[in-house]
Amino acid sequence: xxxxxxxPGDGIGPEIMAQVVRVLKHVHAPFEYEEHQAGEVALNxxxxxxxxxxxxxxxxxxxxxxxxxxxxxxxGHKSINVTMRQKFDLxxxxxxxxxxxxxxxxxxxxxxxxxxxxxxxxYAGIERMVDEDTAxxxxxxTRKGSERIARYAYxxxxxxxxxxxxxxxxxxxxxxxxxxxxxxxxxxxxxYPEITTKDVIVDNACMQLVTKPQQFDxxxxxxxxxxxxxxxxxxxxxxxGVVPGAxxxxxxxxxxxxxxxxxxxxxxxxxNPTALLQSAVMMLQHVGENAKADAIMxxxxxALSDVNARTGDLGGKGTTVSFTDAIIQxxxx
Length: 333
Ligand code: NAI
Ligand code: MG
What we know:
Elements: E1 2-7, H1 13-26, E2 31-35, H2 40-46, H3 52-61, E3 63-66, H4 80-87, E4 92-98, E5 111-117, E6 127-131, E7 134-137, H5 143-159, E8 164-169, H6 177-190, E9 196-201, H7 202-211, E10 218-221, H8 223-236, E11 244-248, E12 253-257, H9 274-286, H10 290-304, H11 320-331
Parallel strand pairs: 1-2, 1-3, 3-12, 5-10, 8-9, 8-10
Antiparallel strand pairs: 4-5, 4-11, 6-7, 11-12
Helix pairs in contact: 1-11, 5-6, 7-8, 9-10, 10-11
The structure holds 1,4-dihydronicotinamide adenine dinucleotide (NAI) and magnesium ion.
């Protein structure tokens, strides 16, 4: 058994997390669940957005599943996600993007994964005012940072049997920084002869993703491009509401839905657990439980195809709980 930190979060978080844990228990996922709080609920009950007890738990379990959290506006609170990314050095942001039945989308047959470097690039926060009228941000790219993200992406491609890697960059303009990223990623690629690598300049990548997304299996890219491409790809398959995500480091991994806490529908048994359940599927794959991951994904797809089962946001007649019932029914015993 592995210990797993469960962070229900705010708004619809506790409702969808309860259903996801129900599915995990149904397939006998090898977890011992440790529930901890983060977000507004933690601020109100424990006085902190991200309490030390929650951090201690993740330090110990090294594995967490997280519901959406509300970051209060004002009060100078630091984003929970940014804090966790820094604390646990979660260098890989992984977002699988796949078209699902019952979900209105721009393109069908999309099944790709974006692997975004999560610690460097223009997001490292190295900024200064040169004088009153001039500001600059430093784009920092290192061999170490590029190598570990490329290795993560190629290992993922290999593990999941995805034969095509696209390295997305702008090395034609930023010859040194993006040039280094591209060179190091290509060098890592040489060690994976069964995977074909192409490099794609980021603006062309946007066009290709919108017109022919089926040509991509795994995309590895820098922080800024990855941020933008991740949302673009989510848009291709029906929006942020249905896609999962993971933040992964050398020693810790945190899986979460990409959507927010949806206060407008919280407590009404309306929320769609699809994104969080897919995050749980990613987590099962991460710990090597591929058969359980596949079984859940298959049952989820079958339930989504049924208008009586799927939730209202997808034009269905189901609720959070009845949709989960439908998934569990399709999982069998
Ligand atoms: P949101 O994603 O919570 O909601 C946007 C719209 O999508 C709402 O109409 C909502 O009802 C709907 N929606 C979202 N998830 C859904 C689900 N699973 N099933 C059915 N409908 C769903 O975004 P919003 O309103 O901008 O943010 C609300 C709060 O969430 C804010 O406090 C924000 O800070 C937080 N947030 C947290 C994130 C996280 O923890 N990773 C990510 C994004 C926002
Ligand atoms: Mg973003």
